Amino acid sequence: MKVQSKKEKSHRQKSSEYEKTSINNVLYRGNFSLALKSIQDYIKKYPKDIKALTMYGKLLRLSKETEKADEILSSLVPLFQGQKELGFILIELIYLKLDTYDYAKAYDYFRLFQSLTFDNDLINKSLPSFLTKTLLEKKLNIYKPIIEREYYNYFERQVIAYDEAELLGHTTIFNAHQNLSDLNGYIRFNSEIDINNLYEDIKKVISNSIKTPNYNLFDTYLFYYPNIGFAKDGAINHLKVLVYPNSDNFDIVEFAPYRIKYYQSFINDFFELQALEELKRSLR
């Protein structure tokens, strides 16, 4: 049996990392079928690569193959007790259980996640602990307030008790009142946008819109909306809307101009949806 030299091992490791990065890029472009096939081919070559197996579980989740995703991800949990890789596995399992409305199991995985100590900023930033805990406890009807709602941050307050008026107050931070020289990279609404009217329009189209795969706790919707906003380097042509997860009323917690980076195949055309909604109303 040939023993690999250090140079060969290093080359093999770099090659595998490049392959995973390429697959991840395909994933974030929204081409799940190609990414899924690519990760399956990769795992045939590197069957013990924990990051690849976790990515495989994530891709199965995003492709709505929830049972298989659960099987893959849950099988990894006992294999990596005490290791930092377990954090990423548990995050995917929590999102999977949120996707399938299994809040009790999501809460179990979250409590296991909380019991672990990770010296890894990426893991800790990937799952906002208090927000996740509050959301799951609210879904399970076991939430008990520790301090008054007013002392929490905006998103935490909206999870504790949704407030539509507070949403509209929060949205003023994206108003076009600031000079371009003061933007410092921040994005603002175009001054011609009436935020209250936009909000009413969003409520009319949101139920017929395609949701992007979860990459945070809130349900996320992306829309093509030309010149809805501006930044220091030019016009912004997309709108992002965050909705309280699995909400029958589509309770919106934030809407703002957004620079699209990921999941471009999940962009809704705002004005097409608006025209469709108006046509439906005229036929009633």
Question: Topology of this protein?
Answer:
Blueprint (H helix, E strand, L loop, with lengths): L5 H23 L3 H14 L4 H13 L3 H11 L8 H15 L3 H13 L5 H6 L2 H11 L14 H7 L3 H8 L16 E2 L5 H11 L13 E13 L2 E10 L8 E6 L9 E3 H14 L1
Parallel strand pairs: 2-5
Antiparallel strand pairs: 1-2, 2-3, 3-4
Helix pairs in contact: 1-2, 2-3, 3-4, 3-5, 4-5, 5-6, 6-8, 8-9, 11-12
> How does CATH name the architecture of the largest domain?
Alpha Horseshoe
CATH class type of the largest domain = Mainly Alpha
- Apparent shape: globular
Number of domains: 2
Query: How widely separated are the two ends?
Result: 75 Å
Strand content: 5-15%
Into which percent range does the helicity of residues fall? 40-55%
State the order of secondary-structure elements, H for helix, E for strand.
HHHHHHHHHHEHEEEEH
Structural class computed from helices and strand pairing: alpha+beta
For this entry, what is the oligomeric state of its chains?
single chain
> What is the CATH H-level superfamily of the largest domain?
Tetratricopeptide repeat domain
Any idea of the CATH topology of the largest domain? Serine Threonine Protein Phosphatase 5, Tetratricopeptide repeat
Q: Can you summarize the main beta sheet?
A: 5 strands, mixed
